Amino acid sequence: MDYVLWVADEYAFDRVYSSFGYLGLPTLARDDILRQFSSLMCISGFGAYAIYMIFSTVSFYLFFDKRQMNHPRFIKNQIQQEIKMATDSIPTMALLTVPFFILEIRGYSKLYEDVEERGWPYLIFSILIFLLATDFGIYWIHRGLHHKSVYAYVHKPHHKWIVPTPYASIAFHPLDGWAQSLPYHICIFVFPMQKFLYLMLFIFVQIWSILIHDGEYFTRDPVINSAAHHTVHHLYFNYNYGQYFTLWDRLGGSYRKPSEEIYNSELRSQMKPHSKQDREMKAMASTLED
Ligand SMILES: [Zn+2]
Ligand SMILES: [Zn+2]
């Protein structure tokens, strides 16, 4: 995040903060914590909104099968509702996330700059560790959010979308979105990562969360937690909590293979599978909310 903050300071914020002087306000230095906090709030709020709107819109027009909007569980004005929930949550999620960014730019994380410091093999290895470790963290946090004691208060809003569109990717209660992003912020305090690689992966995970909600099933790979697996999660709740891989669901006993009517685009656009999914989903939902 210090790359991003440096660019923002260099090309925009320096001028903004120096103009404070004309108003008789203190011109805050780049390393002033109040300035870092407000700058990072702007960057993370607008950055999250831009990534969300751009990639969700691209995914919606290029990949999302619009016939899914005929599903009996597709809500009237659902896309507007998904966008509203996401945009309402972004400021609170940013507020809760900025303390991690401040710790990071103040040098408390294990991020490093020079690739040669740890070599290329470690750089490649760190990608694998990042994906496996954060997937493990999200698996347990997501599974925990399905516990009856918290589900209705925190995670249920995201499950309003039985047939999600790409705009559902961050349509969460803010605490839910923040809780599920914790592994990304904590991991850099646990193991070293190259700064630029981490930034790229951080953007990649936001795009990945859009892709698993777009209903386009590029792969039937049994290892990858694809949109088909996340579709199963939105339809039947208690399966496929993972983010990138099916590994932790398989080990945790919550794996459910997507059926042929989910994988096959012709079958899944027909009413018969829709009605069957509707019946199964209602039966599953009733067990959650007892
Ligand atoms: Zn989801
Ligand atoms: Zn869930």
TrEMBL record:
Name of a matching Pfam family: FA_hydroxylase
Superkingdom to which the source organism belongs: Eukaryota
Sorted UniProt keywords: Membrane, Oxidoreductase, Transmembrane, Transmembrane helix
Major localisation: membrane
Record's subcellular location: Membrane
UniProt entry tagged with the keyword Transmembrane: yes
Occurrences of domain Fatty acid hydroxylase (ranges): 128-253
Region of interest (Disordered), residue spans: 265-290
Residue spans crossing the bilayer: 37-64, 122-141, 196-213
InterPro entries: Fatty_acid_hydroxylase, Sterol_Desaturase_Related
Class of enzymatic activity (EC top level): oxidoreductase
EC number(s) reported in the record: 1.14.19.20
An MF annotation (GO) of this entry: delta7-sterol 5(6)-desaturase activity
Protein name stated in the entry: C-5 sterol desaturase
Species, as recorded: Basidiobolus ranarum
Lineage: Eukaryota, Fungi, Fungi incertae sedis, Zoopagomycota, Entomophthoromycotina
